[in-house]
Amino acid sequence: MAILPAFAILAEDNSDKEFLSIVLRRYYQSDNMTIKGKGYGGCSEMLRKGQRDVEAWLRKGVGRFVICHDADKSSPDSVYTDVIKRIVQPAGLERVCCIVVPVEEIEAWVIADEEAVCHVIPTFLFKGHHNPETISDPKEWLIAKSRAANGKPLYSPATFNPAVARHLRLDVVAKKCQSFTRFLGDLDFLR
Amino acid sequence: MLKSINIKNFRSCVDSQVQLGESVIALVGKNGVGKTTVLHAIQLACELCLGSTEFGFQLSPRDPSQPCEFVLDFSVNGKDCSYYYSRVVAPTASESIHYCEKLSLGGEILFDRHGEALEVPDGAPLASVRLGVRASALSVLLQILPEDHALRSRLQPVASFLGSVRYYPLLQGFQEHSYEGSSFIEKSKYDVLFSELKQGRRTKSVQIRLIYMWLSARDKFDELKALLGRDGLGLLDDIQVEEVEAKGSVGTSSAAESTYVISFMPGAGLAGSRRWFIFSGLSAGTWRILQLLTCLVFDGTSCMLLEQPEDCVHSGLLIKVIDILQTYSERTQLICTTHSASVMNLVGAKGIRFVTSARGETVVTKFDDDGLASASAYLQSEGTLAEFLETL
Fold first, then answer.
1. Distance (Å, rounded) from C-alpha A65 to C-alpha A77?
2. Which of A26, B7, B57, B186 is the most interior residue, by most CB within 10 Å?
């Protein structure tokens, strides 16, 4: 098996970074691959500091980059454009970078696989959603479902998202979420 | 939910109005400006209404000749409530005692007290009641009103709400943590505390809470383990409570006594993983998170008054802990003091309260609409809330 280059993940927060890191390892089936990364304090901080951090990683030999920016009510295309203008082009990453734009947030991917959620919190009888990318605020939606079910514990995204990522059925999520399908396609390209 | 408190003539608060109507509030400001005083005032106002003295806070007037006053606005079961308290702590011999209390629920006055005199809406049966100067009106009414009295049914939810507002001091845990022999709880000692807990008394001890949950509320014990465990924070893979026979000291004739020992298994990949630790062996950071989440799960408070949740906690883990507190905040309102940029970012502009000192007096403000709009614009285009706060 070919040795994978080192990756770096830029995400809006630490939870998203952890989630993507686990998905990357599972997709490439490599527990040993090197993954650097940073969770910022929101998208604006990531756009402002991303180029600087990317250049630092490039100097340290990181060869592939994953940049995750929630759509958050904006059109995914405009988010793509923004990330390219603010980070990708200034840092010269055109051929070694994958831009991930979950619609609306990464929790849409979590919602897509109810079995993974129930595996992490067995007392939360979560029924999922057939089309998670149509939910306007998936994080709040998921928490509300957990509260309504009197989950023990309640679903706290920053804590439980990474655990769900370990059990996520990638094919199931890809069927329900176009943004995830596109993400996996980009990972194939970066291999 | 607590909505606001007005504090007059109490420590550094001359006339401080604090808006609290958010599920998560962070009081931010320099050391010594009065953040903790605000938390103490909230706890004290609740205790004065209930006639309890759990934390032993004193009415400490800035000007002893003037009354200390609190107006606490809150909602219970969707109804607006307001409690007014006013008292001169040390009246001169010639002055009559100034002690006023008033509680209203949904616009209706439930009691109005002036000194020893008490007025209630269904007044006739209680018209002759006179109150002692040390007794709170609410506690007296709940003691003397029959179970089926209409007023009692309106007072009881208010008392339950205020009784479950709870202040969590920063230093309490470390006293328990470092006390020699503190990792072993004699069964006889626990049994006494258990009966007190059953009667509604509260404990400060995290270990007593853990033993109680293990013995009598296993669903809560499992909930806590899930939050701390491998699929949660990854901090403690397991928690076990054991009852062991502890022999008497060498050279004494004392009989063996049953003792509870709580053991903790650190999460995989952490220092000490796969080894069991007793309570006193936990690091300060692990202990702090254990304390926060144990209290959150066990106490089921209506409002946590929390000093610096960031204390001793790594910034990466702090984000997850705050997220858990936010997720639970619909049930348990969180009002905390903080110096942490991470906590400020997570709480958001609406929940930030600025505590400042003007000529030695505590002033508490929040963003107005323009400030919120500016913060929102900054967050979208420039950086984090903590960075925005630095620009103010």
1. 19
2. B7
Which of A32 and B91 is assigned the larger pLDDT? A32
Average confidence score pLDDT of chain B: 89
**Which residue in chain A is spatially nearest to B319 when comparing CA positions?**
A158
Torsion angle of the four alpha carbons A115, A120, A122, A127, in this order, in degrees rounded to the nearest 10: -30
The pTM of this model reads: 0.91
Residue A76: C-alpha distances to residues A17, B67, B209 (Å)? 19, 60, 48
Interface test with B, best of A52, A156, A164, A166 (most B CBs within 10 A): A156
Do B219 and A158 make contact, defined as CB atoms within 8 angstroms?
Answer: no
- CB spacing of A156 vs B323 below 8 angstroms: yes
Using a CB-CB cut-off of 8 Å, the residues of chain B touching A13 are: 319
- The full length of chain A comes to 191
Q: Which residues contact B303 (CB under 8 A, 6 or more apart)?
A: B1, B2, B42, B164, B165, B166, B332, B333, B334, B335
Residues pairing with B356 in the sheet: B363
Q: Is B319 in contact with A13 (Cβ distance < 8 A)?
A: yes
Q: What is the pLDDT of residues B324-349, one digit of tens each?
A: 999 999 889 999 999 999 899 999 99
Which residues of A lie closer than 8 Å to B, measured between beta carbons? 13-15, 41-42, 44-45, 48, 120-121, 143, 146-147, 152-160, 163
User: pLDDT tens, B315-325?
Assistant: 889 999 999 99
| C-beta of residue A54 within 8 angstroms of C-beta of residue A74 | no
Check CB contact under 8 Å for B324 and A156.
Answer: yes
Instruction: Please calculate the CA angle A117-B326-A113 and round it to the nearest 5 degrees.
Output: 15
Read off the pLDDT of residues B366-383 as tens digits, 9 standing for 90 and up: 999 999 999 988 887 788
Q: Give me the torsion for CA of B106, B111, B112, B113, rounded to 10°.
A: -150
d(CA B199, CA B215): 17
> In chain B, which residues have their Cβ closer than 8 Å to the Cβ of A156?
227, 320, 323-324, 326-327
Q: What DSSP character marks residue A99?
A: E
For the cut 80, the answer to whether the pLDDT of residue B123 exceeds it is no
Ramachandran sector of residue B219 (left: φ over 0; alpha: ψ -120 to 50; beta: rest): alpha
Contact list in B for residue A70 (CB cut-off 8 A) is none
Q: Do A14 and B316 touch (CB under 8 A)?
A: yes
List of residues 6+ apart from B271 with CB closer than 8 A: none
CB contact under 8 A, A13 and B386: no
Q: Which of B109, B84, B88, B86 is nearest to B97 (CA)?
A: B88
Test B227 with A158 for CB contact under 8 angstroms.
no
Q: Give the helix/strand (H/E) hosting B270.
A: none
Single-letter amino acid, residue B124: A
Residues in chain B closer than 8 A to A152 (CB atoms): 219-220, 222-223, 226
Q: What is the DSSP string of B115-138?
A: TTEEE-TT-GGGTT-B--TT--HH
